[in-house]
Structure formats: structure tokens, C-alpha cells
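haha ok so turns out i had the wrong file open the whole time. this is the CORRECT one, sorry everyone. sequence first:
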Amino acid sequence: MNHVILLVDDDNEFRESISEILRDEGYDTLVAGSAPQALEHASRHKLSLCLLDVALPGVDGIQLLRYFRSRHVFRLMPVILLTAGIRKEAVRQALQLGVKDILLKSRFSTQELLERISKRINGPVEVVRNPEMGPSSVEPASKARDSQFGTPASSHGATDMPPPSGFDSTLEFDRRPDPSGDGKQDGAGRETRQVTKEMIQAVGGLRALPGIIDTLVAVASNPEASLSDLEEVVRRDPVVAARIVQISNSAAYLRGGPVSRLDEALRVLGFANVVRVASTGAVLRREDLEGDSGDDLAMLWCNSLATGVISERLAVKPEKPGAFLRGLLHEIPSLFALQFLGSDWLPWKSHAMVKGWPLRETLSGALGCSLESLAGQILNAYRIPAEVAIPIQEFHEFFLATHPREPGVAARLLEVSRLFATALGRPGTLLSEVRGILPDEVRNLDLGFLASEDLEADISALEMSAGLGARPQDPAPNRTAVALWRDPRWIAQDPVEAVLARNLDCLRVERFEELSGVSGRVRVAMAEPGSLEWERLAGVAPVIALHRGSLRPEPLAAGIETLRMPVPIHRLLHRIEKQAG
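then structure:
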């Protein structure tokens, strides 16, 4: 049998010359210029070895290597790193990930490369442990129900699924700040600790909606039901979907590559196993969806469903299944956090409303770690494939944080989809952030479906079938009157305007000059620093100016308040109501 070598390098000339050498030696050679192309080859072929460039565009070689080591099917695959230069930290990470050979492109010879390849392919196989995997000695799942998740109520008498491996038990949780501000541990505070077995068990006990499990069992009882019928049910619940993907990518179902589509995961598991996996997991009690904390949990679920549907419609045809799954799972860290906090959530939410904090900052403070770090741990624990997990991770690191690096196309599509979900009345909680959408963000995207009635109908149908449709999507509008002008540099399907229209008495004016003639309403202008309208804000004062760009150091004229987007919804509404008096 011929050995198959995957060569991953973004330098076309280098890639062509090396691949020609390898083919002359009798190796079947596959080439890729980026991590997504490499994953595509890896999913379709049984690889003997990978030659991997460290400096890849987007997802770099170390990240791709880390992904390979997190999948059982690639755990034994030898990897030789190729680099023009490498940092000490990258070397350390590579060694931890089982790399034995790092070759400098400017120094290695053809003979040396071929000798290294032969040694790794024909030599003894070494088991490489994924350094991100948590300890294997975890408490039984039955004890997990004694954690802060409480005893999961399953109408079918099933036990919990075992906690997923992959959660980093070394991640430290600091003491959670006391939201009361008086230094007392009043229910929202917790003792200093690490993410120990309690947290690992909690991740495994992430609860699904009770209505979904009931529906799955009903579908399974129908002799005429198909996997397509099951997929329609699984699409309604991010927790169930994550479980299905997790098990389909486990060692029990070794395949040629990761499963990153729901329909594929369902085919891998089969009808009976899908129902078993879904129905033996933890299930929310119906009372968990009642009250303020239950409303927030349900609204995050609605946001996940809407974002999934919109992501699917915005994506090109081959990418639609993966786009839907990314949208469906993007709030998994927040869903986990709210379930984990339980009754502690309300004190934290009240504290955040006073401080003006967004959801990510509030959850980070309550849990003692950043939400983006938690996202990475949960995605790894549930074995979410890279093509789905990386955009979600970038979404949390870039759009919900302040990391300097640029996200990929898929992460940008996910963010735009979330904002459109907000515009349709599914923002998540009042702590969720909102901003305008720039034309460059949606260039080459067909947005015609946003105005169609069937989009709202599709999302509402998912919510109804998940048991969420009867919930109020918006608070009753109050009497605060607002006049809004929006700079044309933001697109018309504006999430900010939608939030104001759903929560306040909002009147939008077409021309900037019209703001000065409006009386009895709080004036709001969406304008950018440096624009002509920004320089004329004093003429329409008092006014609240919403912007994205940085402000210049000189003070603004009296009567001009500024608020930088993205901004938490509750903070935006509070500033408007405060000015209204």
C-alpha cells in the first residue's frame, strides 16, 4: 500500500517543488495551502504523515496540529514541521504535541527530508496524548448530578451522559467578585478554586430542553420516521446537537475525518443511537425556564436558533450545513454559564445592569475566567470539529472581546448573523451587545431573504417546536420617545434601530437636519467621528451620538453625549431614558 503524505504550505513554489520530490519517491502526495484545505484532505484520506508549515494564513500550523492531536483518528499520525523561523513558545508547544522533527526551510536538504519521512513512517508508532485532555480519572456521572446543576429531571428515567473529555482541569478560576460590593459572600460569591472535577462534570451535564427530548422519543416511536425527521428535531436544540456531534467524533466511531454536519453525524450514529444519546443526557426542568433567569436562558436559546437559520441562508450552498451548526452552537458557553450559575445569575445580572456591563464581561466575572477561554474548553470537550469550532472561537475572541487579530470569513458571517437575529427580535438577554452593520461586512451577500415573511415563520416554527414560541420576544414598549438618524454608512437592516423600535417609541428621520426640528423626543444620531454630520452635532444638541470609531482628544460641545458601539442593550436604553428624564 502506498503511503499518503499531506503537504501543507502556503508558498506555491515551495509546495510544488517538495510535492514533486515526494511523488518521485513513490509517495501519494496531497497538497494544501491553508488549514481548511488541509482538513478537507484529511477528512477524505487515510494519511501516513503530514508535512506542516508553521506560518499558515488564518489558522496557523500549531493550531492545526493541536486539532489533529485532539482527534483519535489523527493521534498517531507523524507530523514534521517546516518553518522559516519559529518562536521558542511554538517549539515548546510542538514538542508537547508529539512533534519530533522541525526543519528550517533554508537549511534542510532533500536527502535529510526523505530520511526523516522514512523514519517517521516506517519507525515504531508512538502514542501522542493530547495535552489539552483532562485527567481520565473523573467521578462517575451519577455524582455529577450533585454539582450546581442539581438533579437533572428526565421524564424517561435516564442517567447522565459521562462528562466529555477534553476539559482543561488546570484552568484556574479566581474568587468571583461579590456583586453586592460589600465584600460578603451573598450567594453570588464562591470560594477560590480551580476548574476541578465539579466543572468537568458540569460541562458533561449541560442540559437540553425538555420538549426536545419528548419530541425525539415520539419521533423514534413512529415506525415511518427517518433520520431526516430526527434532524429536524435535533436542529432545535444546541445542547442536543453538541452531544450528537461529540459522540459521532468519539473513538467509538473512528472515521477518515471529523464530522462537522448534523446530517452526517446522524448517519454515523444511526437512528437508535441518536435517540439514546439525546435522551440519556441531562434535561432542564420546565421550571428552569420560568422567572427572570429562565427568561434569559430561553432568550439565548431563541438567539441561537435564529442565528443558525440566518447563517444557513447567508452561506453559499456547500457551506450551509456547517454555517447552521456554527450559528446554533455559538452561545453554548453562555448557555452553560447561566445553567451553572443557577440562582446566582440574578444578583450578577442586577450588578451588571448598574455597572453597564455586557453579557460576556458579566459571565467572565461570575465564573472567574474569560468567556472566550471557556468557549475553547467547551468546544474541545464536545469534540466540535475545527471548521465549526474555529469560527465560534474567533467570534468569542474578536467580536466579544478585544483581541487584536483579524477573524476569518466564517466568524464574520457568524457575527453578522447574530446581529440580524437581534434585528429580528432575538438579541439574547438585555446584557447582549448591539451595533450597526457596515456595508463592507455584507458585501456579496444576498440579504433579500431578511424581508421575507418565511424567515420569521421558520424561526418561529423552530421556537414553537422547541417549547419556546409562547414566550414574549420583547418587553412591552415604554413611553420614552426617540428620534433616530442613521448615517448611510450603516446598512438599512439596522439592529440598533430594531432594538429602539421594539423597546421605545422610535421615530426615524431621513435627513440629519430634521433632528434639530424634533421636540419632545430624545435625539439619537448614529454617526462616525470625522464625518460631516459629526462636526455638526452641536447644531442638533442635546443628542446621543452612537459611533464605532475612536474619539479625538478634544472635548465635545455641550449637550453631546457619546456611546461607543457595540453597546449592551440595557445600557443603550438606560442612557436614552436618563436623558428623557
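The two ends are 79 Å apart (CA to CA).
again sry for the mixup
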